[in-house]
Amino acid sequence: MSFDFGQIEQSSWKENQCANACLPIAPTSECFHANMERVWGTALSSIYIIIPTLFVIMAIILFISEVHFLQRFARRKRVRYTLYWILGIYPAGMICHLIALYIPRSVIYMEFAVDIWIAYATNKLFGLVLMIHGGRRKFTQECFEAKSNAVPCCCFFCLPVVYNNIKWAKFMKWGIIQFCFMNVIIGYISIVLYSDSSWSDTAISPDASFHMTPDNYFSIIRLISTLICLYAANMFKMFQQSRILEGDFDEKHKINWKFAAVQILIFISGVQRLIFSALTTSRLIPCVAPLNWQRNMKVVESSVIIFEFFLLSILARVAFTRTDDLNLIRKHNNLPIEESDEDEDEDDVDYVNNQNYAGGSRENNISSGIEI
User: What are phi and psi of 277, to 5 degrees?
Assistant: First the structure.
């Protein structure tokens, strides 16, 4: 009679993972769902899985309808792809956090993917608003010396009033760019440290009475980066509001709604994550099966984010799928190349030729160096 000691060790390890003991990292998906069936029962486990999945399916259907709308009405590829990136963050983020609900151990990888998309979508938003205003140069001319007290949140009311000049224009640009890079860098370092099993609470703070994890420190850094980005975003929003040419401009183009749909994403990825990180450190949820690992608050955070992203997807649909925006962008014959669509669809050239937005012909525009 022979014994397979390797199989015995593997079976013992699996039993420990699926037991009620509080684990340092999330269990495998198999053990997690087995614990849910054992502790919560079939009905509650099904609710945990079905409700978030339904939200994700509805968001995907909503995004498909938005893609159909843009294929019909967005003539310029640059505008179309910009809106794809912005509107796609909501279903993509929900899918990533749904995977984190199914496989709790994958949450850090899913957050990294969502952070990259949010950073890129934030940058795309400002390009879109500039296109609506006719380009960066026209925006600067119209809003030159416009003043704003664009505090990132109410606790920073002491920040000075600023004016739209070259110095603050550079600050707005780099305030957004640093958020994009910081999200990628912090996410990458978090994944590297997460793969090192020796990186534990005691590696940061040996004092057993107070635990500081890498996620706490990174959340603080991300909070600072988020506040700077929100400050730049609010400044940009205030400047563009100060020189509205038509009284019903915001009613037509929903600029405030556009900013809100993306700024709330920035808040979720920065400030809200710090809040959940603090709740995780305080051990608010007991470390018992099926949530028998130390950072079990991530499950609650993913569930909340799925619901938040679904509501934001509805707001984004109203704010970004507007024919008024697309028609106004087409009217800007003097839109610079980098903010226009240098690769316009060939089958749409005749459509653009027949439009007399600026009172001049296409030949005149091309001869003057302007690309439509």
Answer: -65, -40
Question: How far is it, in rounded angstroms, from Cα 277 to Cα 281?
Answer: 6
Residues facing 23 on adjacent strands: 293
Read off the amino acid at residue 102: Y
Say whether 74 sits in a helix, a strand or coil.
coil
Tell me which H or E stretch contains 222.
Answer: helix 214-241
CA pair distance 326, 94, nearest whole angstrom? 27
The answer to whether 225 and 115 are in contact (CB under 8 A) is no
pLDDT digits (tens, 9 = 90+) for 234-277: 887 777 766 555 556 667 778 888 989 998 998 998 889 888 88
Residue ranges in 103-213 assigned as alpha helix (H): 107-133, 136-142, 166-194, 201-204
Q: Is 196 exposed, middle or buried (0-12, 13-18, 19+ CB in 10 A)?
A: exposed
Q: Please enumerate in sequence order all residues whose Cβ is within 8 A of that of 344, keeping only pairs 6 or more positions apart, or say none.
A: 75, 76, 77, 352, 372
**Domains observed in the chain:** 26-341 (1.20.1070)
Q: Check the CA dihedral 42-44-48-53 and report its sign.
A: positive
d(CA 301, CA 95): 14
* Residue whose entry in the numeric block shows the structure tokens 């009679």: 1
Q: What's the pTM value of the predicted model, to 2 decimals?
A: 0.78
Structure tokens at 170: 């550079």
* Contact by Cβ (8 Å): 162, 242: no
3-class DSSP assignment, residue 325: helix
